[in-house]
Amino acid sequence: MNKKTIWITGASSGIGEATALKFAKEGWKVIVSARRVELLDKLSVDENIFSYPLDVTDSDKAKEVFKKIIDDHGQVDLCIFSSGTYERKSEKELDVQNIKHVIEVNFLGVINCVSAVEKYYKEKNNGHIAVVSSPVGYRGLPKSSGYTPSKAALNNFTQGIYFDFKKFNVRVTLITPGFIKTALTDKNEFKMPFLKSTNYAADQIYNGLIKKNNFEIIFPLPIKIIYKLIQILPNKLYNYLISKSVNR
Ligand SMILES: NC(=O)c1ccc[n+]([C@@H]2O[C@H](COP(=O)([O-])OP(=O)(O)OC[C@H]3O[C@@H](n4cnc5c(N)ncnc54)[C@H](OP(=O)(O)O)[C@@H]3O)[C@@H](O)[C@H]2O)c1
């Protein structure tokens, strides 16, 4: 049987890594990309996992790597773009260099990957692109000068391309996890509500992509409910509640 193939970026650790292992366990052929080659090599000990190192900020390289994946494996059915960065210390100030870097990785890095697969998917006239962004992108937050805006842009971009790719029978999904325990969130000094494991996230992502057909995969349930409310709160109430929680 011809195995289905998935390409996952940001797969060397955290949510991307757990999702790669989940898809491999479910019998998919899994192509993993990130910068840390040694971590990708460890993953590719699994016979279903194949390492293709990539820095997503390099748009030419993203195209080159995707071409090599198609040359080597013949097809890609699903892409999950999960690369991302966050430096809590630099977020507290308007550090322009940090903001540029975060936008470069979290926003433009994903666009580089979508751009790399665009022609292939549109010609094939089917396929599936999933973007790992964040619910924090839905409204502004204090002391988040780069990360939250980068995810706001990514949420908006992903919804925009949903319409553009739909015409070509290509599905686009936005993944917005709540707090998941990874190296990225280990930098947070505050207690993270409803914190979940990477395996939990991988299961939610797999089920959302393969067993359901919603545009957004948002989890866990309390975060889903809170963010649905947050999106419709008037500015006056939202600003009051956030100011109050910051001043506590
Ligand atoms: N953890 C959470 O609570 C949470 C919640 C909402 C959304 N997210 C999002 O989930 C995604 C994964 O984050 P995580 O929590 O799993 O953190 P993580 O373990 O730090 O994973 C980040 C991944 O992105 C890769 N990456 C970073 N810069 C890259 C670059 N320039 N080129 C290619 N890959 C790059 C890293 O690999 P290399 O360093 O090897 O390149 C790593 O594999 C991110 O987009 C994050 O914003 C996380």
How would you describe what is shown here?
This protein is an alpha/beta fold. It has one domain: Rossmann fold. Helices cover 50% and strands 14% of the residues. It has 9 helices and 7 strands, in the order βαβαβαβααβαβαβαα. It has helices spanning 14-25, 37-43, 59-73, 88-91, 96-124, 147-166, 198-211, 221-232, 235-246; strands at 5-9, 29-33, 49-51, 78-81, 127-132, 170-177, 216-219. Strands 3-2-1-4-5-6-7 form a 7-stranded parallel sheet, with helices on both faces. α7 links the parallel β6 (170-177) and β7 (216-219). α1 (14-25) packs across α7, α3 runs parallel beside α5 (96-124) and α5 (96-124) runs parallel beside α6. The longest helix is centred in the middle third of the chain and has 29 residues, at 96-124. The structure holds NADP nicotinamide-adenine-dinucleotide phosphate. Residues 9-16, 34-36, 54-57, 82-85, 105, 109, 132, 134, 177, 179-180, 182-185 line the site of NADP nicotinamide-adenine-dinucleotide phosphate.
Task: Set down the secondary structure blueprint.
Layout: E1 5-9, H1 14-25, E2 29-33, H2 37-43, E3 49-51, H3 59-73, E4 78-81, H4 88-91, H5 96-124, E5 127-132, H6 147-166, E6 170-177, H7 198-211, E7 216-219, H8 221-232, H9 235-246
Parallel strand pairs: 1-2, 1-4, 2-3, 4-5, 5-6, 6-7
Helix pairs in contact: 1-7, 3-5, 5-6
Bound molecules: NADP nicotinamide-adenine-dinucleotide phosphate.
Features of the shown structure:
50% helix; 7-stranded parallel beta sheet; 9 helices; 248 residues; Rossmann fold; 7 strands; binds NADP nicotinamide-adenine-dinucleotide phosphate; alpha/beta
